[in-house]
Specification:
Oligomer: single chain
Number of helices: 15
Bound molecules: flavin-adenine dinucleotide
CATH class of the largest domain: Alpha Beta
Strand order of the largest sheet: 15-12-14-13-17-18-16
CATH topology of the largest domain: Uridine Diphospho-n-acetylenolpyruvylglucosamine Reductase, domain 3
Structural class: alpha+beta
Number of domains: 4
């Protein structure tokens, strides 16, 4: 064992430290575009041990990368010549009135499966693996975020351990951790808001001809039906990837609602009144599940066809029509786009040769910025967007990040190299 691994074993327990080939599963990301080499992997079982690990590393200026479910789509949790601090063993879970207190390593599905009549109103395709700590650190969004907000809106309290080993809780902990991608400290637990589960979930797919119409339809339906919780856009090129794709072309919008009304008719009516060309309304739970399975399966389909570049775009919601229209033109040539339409968070998945990656990413993110958007979107900056940050026009957001980083991690040991702009708008 290396000297560092031996020391970490003394702090966390010998069985809680991996190195060499045992570290391999922690050293690449979900897309396998990002790989690295860890100094050692350590799995602390409580906040006290996290504090001891961090202060050991801080005293010796050893870089640390926190890793939860490792579902980051921007290579944010892959250690490179750093200690990988995995939160897997921080797995406490306690229901406290209308809230839930969860260890950083608990998955979203793990929480919602345990909650029974209530749920944390957040949903992402990686729900089975993404953890509380990772979702706080990335301020995860997802399908429900236009109705319930992003992860940061659901956090009532949390604990973050700073590099010195000091523990912060309460309001200060919130702004030192949410969306900061593990660059200031390690989240060890969070108290999350829950909402009562509704008795029925309805879903419908609407075909639309152009992206502007898609946005107007989304707005019109959400203005009419209060219980809508997601409006997901899927471009015509992605729809065509499904064997069972209906003929006739067009882009698709997936709407879903949670309600106490057993009848889905009001959702169908709102879609037709809003101008949808044709609508398929799920008639039972199986059909709802089938529609969502198709939407959730997009990443996997793209992965097999590609793998694609994963590029999330963040533009003002009103600009989504212009962005999608441009993505579909020959000038850009990548119509592989889906995402959370009313939030302005769209995921673009160009399947291109690696040597063209930077050129295409630069063109797409430049377009987003020209439309009033931001360089970093819902997945965070991680390693993937490092070279794109020079396109950022909101320089104050980057300065705010550096000021916070200098205050809480002056030795720059936490996820070094990651710059997570702190935006105040869009
Ligand atoms: C199929 C699929 C669908 C997805 N859909 C969405 C989506 O709709 N919306 C969305 O926002 N994201 C989505 N993602 C991206 C990803 O799931 C989220 O970013 C998620 O929040 C990451 O959680 P994680 O536990 O896997 O974190 P990791 O990937 O392990 O880490 C992500 C970042 O958080 C930091 N981190 C992890 N744990 C901690 C901690 N305890 N303390 C401090 N920092 C920490 C890491 O250092 C890294 O910078 C998707 C990913 C996949 C694979």
């Amino acid at each position: 064992m290396s000297a560092i691994a031996t020391d970490l074993g003394r702090i966390a327990g010998a069985g809680a430290v991996f190195e060499k080939e045992d570290s391999a599963p922690f050293e690449h990301d979900y897309t396998r575009r990002f790989t690295g080499r860890s100094v050692a992997v350590v799995l602390p079982e409580n906040a006290t041990t996290v504090a001891a690990v961090l202060s050991y590393c801080n005293d010796r200026s050893i870089p640390v990368v926190a890793q939860g479910g490792n579902t980051s789509l921007v290579g944010g949790a892959v250690p490179d010549e750093a200690v990988c601090l995995s939160t897997r063993r921080l797995d406490s879970l306690e229901v406290v009135g209308g809230s839930v207190d969860a260890g950083a390593g608990v998955t979203l599905a793990g929480i919602n499966d345990a909650l029974g009549q209530r749920e944390v109103p957040l949903d992402i395709g990686s729900r089975d693996s993404a953890t509380v700590g990772g979702m706080v650190a990335t301020n995860a969004g997802g399908a429900f975020s236009f109705r319930f907000g992003r992860m940061g809106h659901l956090v009532q309290d949390l604990q973050v351990i700073l590099p010195t080993g000091e523990s912060l809780e309460g309001d200060e902990a919130l702004w030192v951790a949410i969306g900061l991608e593990g660059t200031t400290g390690v989240v060890t637990r969070a108290r999350l808001r829950t909402v009562p589960r509704k008795a029925f979930r309805h879903a419908a797919i609407a075909r639309v001809r152009d992206p502007h119409q898609a946005f107007l339809l989304g707005r019109s339906v959400t203005d009419t039906v209060a219980e809508i919780d997601s409006v997901e856009f899927v471009s015509d090129r992605l729809v065509a990837m499904f064997e069972a794709a209906p003929s006739g072309g067009g882009h698709f919008l997936l709407f879903s609602s949670r309600t106490d009304d057993p009848d889905p008719a009001s959702l169908g009516r709102a879609l037709l009144d809003g101008g949808a060309d044709d609508v398929e309304l799920a008639q039972d739970d199986n059909q709802v599940l089938r529609m969502w399975a198709a939407r959730d399966g997009l990443n996997e389909k793209l992965h097999h066809a590609g793998p694609p570049l994963k590029l999330d775009c963040r533009v003002p919601p009103e600009a989504t029509g212009d962005l999608i229209e441009w993505l579909l033109t020959d000038e850009c040539g990548t119509g592989n786009v889906f995402g959370h339409l009313l939030e302005g968070n769209l995921h673009v998945n160009p399947i291109v040769a690696e040597e063209l990656a930077t050129e295409i990413e630069t063109a797409i993110i430049s377009k987003c910025v020209a439309l009033g958007g931001r360089v970093v979107g819902e997945h965070g900056a991680g390693r993937a967007k490092r070279h794109l940050l020079e396109l950022e026009t909101d320089l104050a957001a980057i300065e705010r990040f550096h000021a916070l980083k200098a205050r809480f991690d002056p030795n720059d040991i936490m996820n070094p190299g990651v710059v997570a702009p702190i935006y105040e708008s869009v």
